[in-house]
Automatic annotation (TrEMBL):
<keyword id="KW-0592">Phosphate transport</keyword>
<comment type="subunit">
    <text>Homodimer.</text>
</comment>
<feature type="domain" description="PhoU">
    <location>
        <begin position="122"/>
        <end position="207"/>
    </location>
</feature>
<comment type="function">
    <text>Plays a role in the regulation of phosphate uptake.</text>
</comment>
<dbReference type="GO" id="GO:0006817">
    <property type="term" value="P:phosphate ion transport"/>
</dbReference>
<keyword id="KW-0963">Cytoplasm</keyword>
<dbReference type="InterPro" id="IPR028366">
    <property type="entry name" value="PhoU"/>
</dbReference>
<protein>
    <recommendedName>
        <fullName>Phosphate-specific transport system accessory protein PhoU</fullName>
    </recommendedName>
</protein>
<comment type="similarity">
    <text>Belongs to the PhoU family.</text>
</comment>
<keyword id="KW-0813">Transport</keyword>
<dbReference type="GO" id="GO:0005737">
    <property type="term" value="C:cytoplasm"/>
</dbReference>
<dbReference type="GO" id="GO:0045936">
    <property type="term" value="P:negative regulation of phosphate metabolic process"/>
</dbReference>
<dbReference type="InterPro" id="IPR038078">
    <property type="entry name" value="PhoU-like_sf"/>
</dbReference>
<dbReference type="Pfam" id="PF01895">
    <property type="entry name" value="PhoU"/>
</dbReference>
<dbReference type="InterPro" id="IPR026022">
    <property type="entry name" value="PhoU_dom"/>
</dbReference>
<dbReference type="GO" id="GO:0030643">
    <property type="term" value="P:intracellular phosphate ion homeostasis"/>
</dbReference>
<feature type="domain" description="PhoU">
    <location>
        <begin position="17"/>
        <end position="103"/>
    </location>
</feature>
Length: 232
C-alpha cells in the first residue's frame, strides 16, 4: 500500500511538470504570435489552453483522492496540499499566455504592439520565457538556486513593466502618439506578463516550502542547495 502511495505521489509530480511544460510552450508561442502577428499560432495557444485546464482538473482530483484515501501527514501532506496550489498557479499562468494570444488575435492583421514599444516587449517576452523555462526545471529538480533565479527574473519583469508606463507617459521624440486601443493593449499586455512573473515566483516559493518545510516569505534563501526527489 505504501509503495502504491509513493507511485501516486510521483504521478502527481510528473503531471505538474507536464503542466508546466505546456505553460512554457504557450507563453513562447503567444509571444511569437504577438511579435509577428501570426494568427494561426495565436489561435493554437488559445485552443491549447484547454489542455492546461484539463491537467489542473486531473491533478486536483488526484490530490483530493490521495487526501481522502491515504490521509497523509507531515511531509506527504505538505506535498499533496502544495500540488493543489501549484496546479492552480500553473493554470493561471496558462490563462495569462492565452490572454497575450487573444490580444495578438484581436489586432490581426495589424500588430498589437506599437513600433515604439517593440524593443521593450521583446525583452519582456524573453524574461517571461526564462521564467517559464526555469519553472519547468524547478519542478523537475527542486533546486532552490533556480527558485532564487526566478525571483530575480521577476524583478526584471517588474522593471520592464514600469518601462512601458514610462514610454506611454514620456514617449520618445518623433514617436507616433498611441491611439486609445493601443494604450489599452500596451497596458493589458504589460500587466499579463508582469502577473506571469508573479505566478512564477509563487511556484518558486511553494517549492522552497516543500524543500525546507518552512513558511516561505518575500525572498528565497540564498546559497541553499537543497533538492528533493520528485513527489517527495
Amino acid at each position: 500500500m505504501r509503495e502504491i502511495f509513493r507511485q501516486e505521489l510521483e504521478q502527481v509530480g510528473d503531471d505538474l511538470v507536464l503542466m508546466a511544460r505546456h505553460v512554457q510552450t504557450a507563453m513562447e508561442h503567444a509571444s511569437i504570435a504577438l511579435a509577428t502577428g501570426d494568427l494561426r499560432l495565436a489561435e493554437r495557444v488559445i485552443d491549447d489552453d484547454r489542455t492546461v485546464d484539463q491537467l489542473e482538473q486531473s491533478l486536483d482530483e488526484q490530490c483530493v483522492t490521495l487526501l481522502a484515501r491515504q490521509q497523509p501527514v507531515a511531509t506527504d501532506l505538505r506535498v499533496v496540499v502544495s500540488a493543489l496550489r501549484l496546479s492552480a498557479t500553473l493554470e493561471r499562468m496558462g490563462d495569462l499566455a492565452r490572454h497575450v494570444a487573444q490580444v495578438a488575435r484581436g489586432r490581426y492583421p495589424e500588430l498589437a504592439v506599437p513600433e515604439s514599444f517593440t524593443d521593450v516587449f521583446r525583452r519582456i517576452a524573453d524574461a517571461s520565457n526564462t521564467v517559464a523555462r526555469d519553472v519547468v526545471r524547478l519542478l523537475e529538480g527542486r533546486d532552490l538556486a533556480l527558485a532564487a533565479t526566478i525571483e530575480a527574473d521577476d524583478d526584471q519583469l517588474d522593471a520592464l513593466h514600469r518601462e512601458t508606463f514610462r514610454l506611454m507617459l514620456a514617449p520618445r521624440e518623433n514617436a507616433r502618439p498611441l491611439d486609445a486601443q493601443q494604450v489599452v493593449d500596451v497596458t493589458l499586455l504589460g500587466r499579463y506578463y508582469e502577473r506571469f512573473g508573479d505566478h512564477g515566483v509563487s511556484v518558486a516559493r511553494r517549492i522552497a516550502y516543500l524543500v525546507t518545510g518552512e513558511a516561505y516569505g518575500t525572498t528565497i534563501p540564498d546559497g541553499v542547495d537543497a533538492q528533493i526527489s520528485r513527489g517527495a
